[in-house]
Write a structure and sequence with these properties.
The complex is a heterodimer of chains A (195) and B (246). Chain A is an all-alpha fold and 195 residues long. Chain A has 2 domains: 118 residues, no CATH class; 59 residues, no CATH class. Chain A is globular. The relative contact order of chain A is 0.10. Chain B contains 13 helices and no strands. The radius of gyration of chain B is 44 Å and the shape is elongated. Chain B is mainly alpha-helical. Chain B folds into 2 domains: 51 residues; 128 residues, Tetratricopeptide repeat domain (Serine Threonine Protein Phosphatase 5, Tetratricopeptide repeat). In chain B, helix 2 packs across helix 3 and helix 11 packs antiparallel against helix 12. The chains are: A mainly alpha (195), B mainly alpha (246). The interface between A and B is large, with 47 and 43 residues.
């Protein structure tokens, strides 16, 4: 990926980054009906579909923001695949009985599948990191929140009444701690090479 | 190198505050030690995660909010589309609907002149306490019944009937109490017993059973019963009036 030409559907990724209502509406009008159809056929309803679509779009946004996601394939198949897998995971999680998966025959190019895989791994990483961050001590959490929200380390230092050097050292220790914590997680070892 | 020094070096590298010497040192360590190389990669991953997740709360919330609004509008429209397919009414349908409403109004108006139970019922007074042998329960039953407290009257009359099962007076007032309490089936049983007997309450029981049916809007059953009341009966006149109105 990345060697191909940027697809015209990159406009949907940009719309998420810019919070462009007009184009976001187009996403719903063009791509939501297919997802509604699939989820309804597979033990879901419109309200569940709404949640699945919202979560999927938020994940795509997060990936685009952090990892500079650039599409070289159509949005349609990539988006549908993501919603579909998210829904199947949801069903598995709830351990629903008697669920028959009515598979639709959709021809999905390898590229869409590869994009979808990357987004799924990105999401798994986010979930894991969020869990681990919550386990961090209060002092570290607050310091990290301050340094990443305020951006300027000088401002953080003066706000905390500490020296710049002290804050940077503390920050590095806190991230160091997170690094150790996540490295000891079996889940991380499964996904780290895919990141 | 202590872990503290290592993490600070990572931090300097990421925030571009590293000296040339330190940068060379870090590159050397990463090349030599696979574990540190992995650690540095993970440290970078955390830095990237934290800057996206801790610093973008407002932007994220705004997008989530906007998506929710767009989604709500979209899904409401979808639902309406499905519904309108089912109930779409041609323009002449409104005229039909209006006519139906008018007819309903006429029907309701006509209906409201149909006789109702309350218009015809006249509940006699219960007077058992006048008799010498009346016990305490009898008094209570009378008091309750004559003050329209049928719930209590039912209980006391029932107690009296336990001692005197064939007492037609107790049965009759017991039946009336049951109709007042909307215990229609039990009331019918009581009145049927009286109707089949030979007591002075025989015809009165038919009349009250007719009222019992009227209260349940069983007009046909009510009419049949009214026709059973003979001319000499106390309630004949009223029964004929009700029959006419039905």
């Amino acid at each position: 990926m990345g060697n191909n030409k940027v697809h015209a559907d990159q406009k949907y990724i940009e719309a998420l980054l810019k919070n462009d209502t007009l184009v976001l509406k187009e996403i719903y009008e063009k791509f939501a009906p297919k997802v509604v159809g699939y989820i309804k056929k597979n033990s879901g309803d419109e309200s569940k579909t709404q949640d699945i679509i919202q979560e999927t779009l938020m994940t795509i946004y997060a990936q685009a923001k952090e990892k500079k996601l650039v599409l070289t394939c159509p949005f349609d198949a990539y988006f549908f695949l993501l919603c579909k897998r998210k829904w199947l995971n949801e069903l598995k999680k709830n351990n629903k009985q008697k669920v028959t998966i009515n598979e639709e025959i959709v021809s999905i190019g390898d590229e869409s599948e590869q994009y979808a895989n990357e987004t799924m791994i990105f999401e798994a990483r986010n979930e894991l990191f969020s869990e681990i961050f919550e386990q961090l001590g209060k002092a570290c959490k607050e310091l990290l929140k301050a340094t990443f929200t305020i951006k300027s380390m000088e401002d953080v230092a003066s706000k905390l009444g500490k020296s710049y050097g002290y804050v940077r050292k503390k920050k590095s220790l806190c991230i160091g701690q997170l690094t150790k914590m996540v490295q000891s997680s079996p889940k991380y070892n499964q996904i780290k090479n895919l990141l | 190198m202590t872990p503290e020094e290592k993490y600070e070096l990572f931090e300097r590298k990421i925030s571009n505050e590293i000296s040339i010497e330190e940068d060379q040192l870090l590159s050397q360590i990463i090349e030599d030690d696979q574990a540190i190389a992995e650690e540095f990669k993970t440290y970078q991953e955390w830095n990237s995660y934290l800057s996206s997740n801790l610093g973008l709360d407002t932007e994220k919330a705004q997008l989530a909010n906007n998506l929710k609004n767009i989604s709500d509008t979209f899904f409401t429209k979808e639902t309406q589309k499905t519904k309108s397919k089912v109930i779409k009414m041609p323009s002449w349908g409104y005229a039909v609907a209006a006519s139906v409403l008018v007819l309903l109004g006429v029907y309701t108006f006509t209906k409201s002149t149909t006789p109702i139970y309350n218009d015809f019922v006249s509940i006699p007074e219960l007077s058992i306490s006048e008799r010498a042998n009346t016990n305490e329960i009898g008094k209570k039953a009378e008091e309750a019944f004559n003050s329209n407290n049928y719930k209590e009257a039912e209980v006391f009359l029932n107690q009296l009937l336990e001692e005197d099962k064939s007492n037609s007076e107790y049965l009759f007032y017991y039946g009336i109490s049951l109709v007042e309490l909307n215990e229609f089936e039990k009331a019918s049983e009581v009145f049927t017993t009286l109707q089949n007997g030979t007591s002075i309450y025989k015809y009165r029981a038919i009349w009250f059973e007719a009222l019992n049916q009227l209260k349940q809007k069983n007009t046909d059953r009510c009419k049949v019963l009214l026709e059973l009341i003979p001319k000499e009966a106390q309630d004949y006149q009223t029964a004929q009036e009700l029959l006419e109105e039905l």
